[in-house]
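Consider a concrete sample entry:
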Amino acid sequence: MADTWLIIGLGNPGPRYEQTRHNVGQMVVDELASRRSAAFRQHKANARVAEAWLRPGAAKLILAKPSTFMNVSGGPAANLARFYGLGADRVVVVHDELDIPFDTIKLKTGGGHGGHNGVRDVAKALGTPDFARVRVGIGRPPGRQDPADWVLDAFGATERKTLPILVGDAADAVEHLADEGLVAAQQRFHAPRP
């Protein structure tokens, strides 16, 4: 299944967390599904899954939202990779990133987890950190607010005005990565906006 990608949007389950910074990965996966009119269904891997194609004749996208809390996202991710017969090189994890300014997207493969417990758990469950990541910048909290509280807060009013553009850009980055590869996606999305 070399033309298949498993796209995992990290987040927490339930309405309490839907609009929080920690769930921006799931917002991106929702956007990808919406663009293709793909419906999510519960999968036995403890995740909600939608299958779609990038476009006719192009790569297949397995869009997934673990039904578990963020810190234990690895089980569903590894189970889905096994179910679809995909290696870590065909997995893309979309997640929030404190160390990137809000409204910024960065892509990479491998490396550390940067203190992100969801990414840490996925790397542990897959047995390798060598999967692609689309890192959606949420920035650091102002003042002395605890980062753990910050990520579980809803986006602020000013951020919400830009959020649809950020989510759309991150979805574009996932599509570009699946279509053109990591380096081409980095060249496009790491460049400053005009």
User: Anything to note?
Assistant: The chain has a mean pLDDT of 94. Strands lie at 4-9, 41-43, 47-53, 60-66, 91-97, 105-109, 132-137.
